[in-house]
Design brief:
The chain folds into 3 domains: 2-28, no CATH class; 39-93; 99-174. It has 2 helices and 16 strands. The protein has helices spanning 2-13, 18-23, and strands at residues 26-27, 39-43, 47-51, 57-63, 67-70, 73-76, 79-85, 88-91, 95-107, 117-120, 126-132, 137-145, 151-156, 159-162, 166-170, 173-174. The strands form 4 sheets. Strands 2, 5, 9, 12, 13, 14 and 15 form a 7-stranded antiparallel β-sheet that branches. A 5-stranded antiparallel β-sheet has the order 4-3-8-7-6, with no helix packed on it. The longest helix is centred in the N-terminal third of the chain and has 12 residues, at 2-13. It is elongated, with a radius of gyration of 20 Å.
């Protein structure tokens, strides 16, 4: 069974042989092949009410900063809700959605090569007291998106940079 899985991984990565993959413990791969299934939601209010599929309050509330895997996103009465359990939904008004996306990035401001790079909170409001050096590298593990799909990458707790300021990305995967 292990040989079959190893062969399949080698075939997908195009390494050519199982022996090559077996001797290398770390392999560089394309961004498209580094994925983790599922979306997540993090509560960003003191206590978030949980709703049923019709938008009715339940007897359940979730703690601030708790993280939940999201089965699906559903619009109820014009608001997005994240399904965190069977018939249990968390409002987007009380939380934000994110994806796991580990990588190292290099940033440079669109305003100019020597200009500091802007930093944003999870609600995509710019932090006026924080910026980062251009051409600096950062480890990131989380992606959030604007309503029109623009990605922002977390570089520190509640600090994100816009993808348009990212000039280099590197991914690593261990096989």
């Amino acid at each position: 069974m292990k040989k079959t899985i190893l062969f399949l991984v080698c075939a997908l990565l195009g390494t050519g042989s199982a022996l090559t993959a077996a001797t290398n413990s770390v392999t560089d791969v394309n961004a498209q092949s580094v994925t983790q299934k599922g979306d997540f939601a993090q509560v960003d209010v003191n206590e978030a009410q949980v709703y049923d599929q019709n938008g009715n309050k339940t007897d359940i509330a979730l703690q601030d900063n708790s993280t939940w895997q999201v089965a699906k996103t559903q619009s109820i009465n014009g608001t997005d809700y994240f399904q965190v359990a069977p018939n249990q939904f968390l409002s987007s008004k009380d939380s934000f959605a994110y994806k796991v996306r580990p990588m190292v990035i290099k940033v440079q401001s669109l305003d100019g090569a020597d200009e500091p790079v802007r930093v944003y909170q999870h609600n995509l409001v710019q932090k006026n007291n924080v910026s980062i050096e251009p051409n600096s590298r950062w480890a990131t593990d989380t992606e959030i998106n604007t309503s029109n799909g623009m990605p922002f990458l977390r570089i520190a707790p509640d600090e994100y940079v816009a993808m348009y300021d990212v000039v280099e990305q590197s991914f690593k995967a261990t096989i």
